[in-house]
Amino acid sequence: MIGGTSWHATVEYYKAINEKVGEAQDNMQSPPLIIYSINIEVMRSGDQNRIKETYLEVSQKLEAAGAEAIVICANTPHLVCDSVQPQIGIPFLHIASATGNEARSKGMKTLGLLGTLPTMEGEFITGILDRDYGMRCLKPEGSNFQKTHDYISKELTRGIFSAEAKAFYTEQIRAFAKGGADGVILGCTELPILLRDAETALPLLSTTDLHANMAADFVLEES
Q1: Which one of 15, 153, 177, 218 has the lowest number of neighbouring Cβ atoms within 10 Å?
Q2: Are residue 124 and residue 52 in the same domain, yes or no?
Q3: Domain limits for position 49
Q4: CATH number at residue 180
Q5: Are 183 and 205 spatial neighbours (Cβ–Cβ below 8 Å)?
Q6: Residues 108-129: pLDDT tens digits?
Q7: Same domain, yes or no, for 60 and 134?
């Protein structure tokens, strides 16, 4: 597990993986996990070379330590997967695949996407959903596009979960519903924490939960 961006989401991953594996194994087992926590400042730097080099170095260390697969405990850092994957011998369990599988099982074709600017602008989530699942992604419009990122970077990743942020994202989900979306991707692993008890206009795809479930399933299959 590569965590730390932010540690709040990493905690959610660790808890969810242990709970699912424990339930499947009569609450008597904890899965073998190796966690490497990266300083979130690496991502905030915006230096693509530094980000990719850091994730490559950490991935290689985890492989050398005996990891059989890697889970990046956040959406945005998945931008490194295409460059890092060919340089390691174990797979990334990709958050977009976990999300696409769930959306497909629910018959969803058009999805709203909430996340950081790199997640919304890049192809490392939307490209996989389009290519492998035939799904279209809608994004916030106008100034709301930047605000979607700002609440994440300035509040959520710092452990601030305000009523204002909750109201903002709830309104964006309402706008997606009016635009014809079938569901909404919570493409920041802190968003499910913020919206945990919210009433929303559309079903939510919690990337945190779906990705953690994928990791737990991998552990159970390997064991």
Answers
A1: 15
A2: no
A3: 2-94+210-222
A4: 3.40.50.1860
A5: yes
A6: 999 999 999 999 999 999 999 9
A7: no
